[in-house]
Amino acid sequence: MTGWRRREFLGVAVALAAPLSARGAALDLGALETRHGGRIGIAAHDLTSGRKVGWRAGERFAYCSTFKLFLAAAVLQRVAAGKERLDRQVPVTAADIVSHAPVTGPMVGKTMSVEALCEAMVDVSDNPAANIMIRQIGGLDAWRGWYRSIGDKLTTVDRFEPALNSAKPGDPRDTTTPVQAAANVAKVLAGDLLTPAHRALLTRWAVATPTGPGRIKAGVPAGSIVAHKTGTADPGPTNDIGLVWLPDGRVIAVAAYFTESNAPTQADRDAVIAEATRAAIATLGRASGGQG
Length: 292
Known about the structure:
- A 5-stranded antiparallel sheet has the order 4-3-11-10-9, with helices on both faces.
- The chain has 9 helices and 11 strands.
- The protein is globular and about 50 Å long.
- Residues 1-18 have low confidence and may be disordered.
- The protein is of the alpha+beta class.
């Protein structure tokens, strides 16, 4: 890590280290961690009331493929600024292909539109699609710069897929905190960072994704709508970030991470994310005097 990156990391990490609570209602996931080992990190922001809860919300976690939601938003911003076109065709080469290429793999030697590449990385987490789009926006430095442009001074950007999934304990590369990720989710899916049309497109991709049905989706009340992006290293981190529209009208930005676990299966790790989400939403409900 360079000197300026180290100073940036330490300064912001200290500022975000405090736990979050929602007006007297504290979220406690200690027992859940004890049962499954590892670290759970979650931040839940009620965008309707402004209340927030969190557990290890200021600690760093490897974000894995959750970044693809934000990368798609960065591309859509470029489209709105006239620097990119959704219908522009991009070649897919054999050199682009890395592990997990369900969409790009069959397209080697052909072209894909910018829109199709973005949809592939959000919908089915296609790794080559993400790497291609990082290069198309100018590489890792430009990608890191996008986070800074939206006020995120904390998220680190260091490697392409799939190397960014190594998630070694204490390694700050390719990490963020739950509180920062939840704030970013709110900006891209509920704020004015994107045009209404582009925000609707990104939301449609994030609602349609079939990945992670046992994570945030399994921890919200029946009738909720979830726009989300998962991140996984198996065995390893199990993550999910997104926006939840609850049946009672509340809108909740959630960023949940689970790492260094001894849970034996991916389904078990998914269930921890669901339980953490359920607890966070219930805590927010108690804080507001409503139903959890």
